[in-house]
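A further point concerns the way the authors explain their paired sequence and structure data. Nothing conveys this as quickly as seeing an actual entry. An entry of this sort, consisting of the sequence and the corresponding backbone structure tokens, reads as follows:
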Amino acid sequence: LLTADTRSNLVNIDVEDIKSLSKGEIVGTISQIFNNSSEELIINRFSDKEATKCIFNITSGSDLDLSTVTELIYKLRNVYPNINMIYGTKIDDKYNDKLKVQALLTT
């Protein structure tokens, strides 16, 4: 689900991040492409999970900025106020005007 990548990243996820989540039971995975304006759909994909830890990566085109990511994280925090969340962001211009969201949720 989450793979190492050497392309341009805004925020990196490293092996230690993945190890920190691998100790829990997997309660959900998400791998889906959304339109840039689909934040509510992304939140809904997360909201039915009973997770205490989450690692996720957002890939988008060069139009992605950290304020978009920050806003999405803020909204996810409203769904999961006590979740331990690790995230990364990656630029890939084949995803212009889209958000590719990959996530692993554990207990």
